[in-house]
């Protein structure tokens, strides 16, 4: 079997397959608000890598290199552990699950943890995208947290193909580092949970309590909702941008002070949300102008 000739004949087709799959995964994660640490990484396996895998007897080809499950690979690095199973569910719903490989160490050991999925293209998806020529292709997807990624990449550079030559003391120290990385994952998740609880409290606290807090995107939203009688409806990103702009441009750091400046100052009759925002900005511009004039006297 001429591995090189087959590889060269197939590479462009598999590169196209990778581009399309990667684009769909990026869209899937974005639509489901999955925070990732880096842009999604994808690759078509190199000829050298295939030949090394065959010569090492880690894989035996019967007829074609397309028997390799990882001829095309994608890596997803997540910021928080809580999203790992959600990503698995999303991918298994979008693609056809062929195999799930859980790279997890025993509870008394530390090392590489990750989820590997071998996926195929669902028949209905192949037809809808004119993807019939890719219908039998498979792709391996690795799903890691950022700490698992640090461990995997570092251990690959230091130990790959030479782990048996590493002194036990060095190996032990490196595995101890793995334990610290697991703690980082846990702490990042805990901090995220605390942040979510804090902003949930901001949404639910009495308004008088909000007025004693610093101005941030959520306290800003509460003040805007209160003073617009619920008219203000900016979605998260626009709300964050507007609150940041007001804090920066007008040096307003406290929710209570912001409320004092705009309370009762806008006639809401016939206004839309954008009109209310423009009125608020006009009030703040006038206040800033008055302050600047008084300081220049």
Global mean pLDDT: 85
Order of SSEs, N→C?
HEHEHEEHEHHHHHHH
Q: What's the count of strands? A: 5
CATH architecture of the largest domain: 2-Layer Sandwich
Would you tell me the structural class of the helices and strands?
Answer: alpha+beta
Low-confidence stretches: 106-110
- CATH superfamily membership of the largest domain: Beta Polymerase, domain 2
Outline of this structure?
The chain is 57% helix and 11% strand. The chain is α+β, with helices and mostly antiparallel strands and 297 residues long.
Topology:
Elements: H1 3-31, E1 41-44, H2 47-55, E2 72-78, H3 84-94, E3 96-103, E4 114-120, H4 123-128, E5 138-145, H5 146-159, H6 168-204, H7 207-210, H8 217-227, H9 236-250, H10 255-262, H11 273-296
Helix pairs in contact: 5-6, 8-9, 8-10
